[in-house]
Specification:
Blueprint: H1 2-23, E1 34-37, E2 43-49, E3 77-82, E4 92-103, E5 119-122, E6 125-131, E7 139-145, H2 149-152, E8 156-162, E9 175-186, E10 202-203, E11 215-216
Antiparallel strand pairs: 1-2, 2-9, 3-8, 4-7, 4-9, 5-6, 5-8, 10-11
Length: 217
């Protein structure tokens, strides 16, 4: 019967929608960052971005480079961190760093100007200093201080990596594993000390006679 066919079609559509919801990653809706508060009331927000991070945090570029890929001078790429608490009332950010874990950064000083210069920008501004550090054939961490203005403007921190800035042909290359944003902050609160309450006293005291004038203070 036609009614039974419609029921079957509806059930099939609902099942397909259910499978899409279950099997499709929740891209752009779940923040990959975590916040921890220590006993002293200091918060630490940590967010790591890598090749498996969803948009808008990371989208593989169309030039063949990217996270987990050995990338050359013409395979620059970028990613995004964010800090949802950036506009919290009375927030006091005490430190903000970006840690990059990279492979085979040939930044040894003896290379001179022919060495590997991999530069980073945050929100279009060069970090100072803003070069990846490392040695040939090893993994290395480089920690950068992030300008607070890049956080407090809108909470988004857009990072761009310019690989092997001094060459226009395949000379040096590197591979990034991850980028970690760490922000330490406090949120001062109003004092819980109760207000001062004036006490009522009489002068003279309780030994006054009926004819004495009493003054309340």
């Amino acid at each position: 019967m036609e009614t039974d066919k419609n029921i079957i079609r509806t059930s099939s559509c609902l099942l397909a929608l259910f499978l899409i919801i279950i099997l499709t990653p929740n891209q752009g809706l779940t923040n990959p960052g975590t916040t921890v508060e220590d006993p002293a009331g200091t918060f630490t927000y940590t967010q790591t971005i890598n090749s498996s991070s969803p948009a808008p945090y990371y989208t593989a570029p169309g030039n063949g480079g990217g996270f987990d890929i050995y990338s050359w001078y013409n395979q620059d790429f970028g990613w995004q961190h964010d800090f949802p608490a950036y506009n919290t009332a009375n927030i006091n950010i005490t430190s903000a760093t970006l840690t990059i874990y990279a492979w085979d950064v040939d930044s040894e000083t003896w290379h001179g100007t022919e060495g590997e210069y991999d530069g980073l920008k945050v929100d279009g501004v060069d970090l100072e200093p803003g070069l990846l550090q490392g040695t040939d054939g090893t993994w290395s961490e480089t920690i950068f201080d992030i300008p607070l203005s890049s956080i407090t403007d809108d909470g988004d921190i857009n990072v761009e990596l310019d690989i092997d800035m001094n060459h226009t042909s395949n000379h040096w290359a590197t591979k990034l594993d991850y980028s970690t944003l760490e922000i330490t902050y406090t949120i001062p609160t109003a004092s819980n000390t109760p207000p001062v309450v004036d006490s009522l006293t009489l002068s003279p005291g309780t030994t006054a006679s009926d004819n004495d004038d009493l003054v309340a203070t």
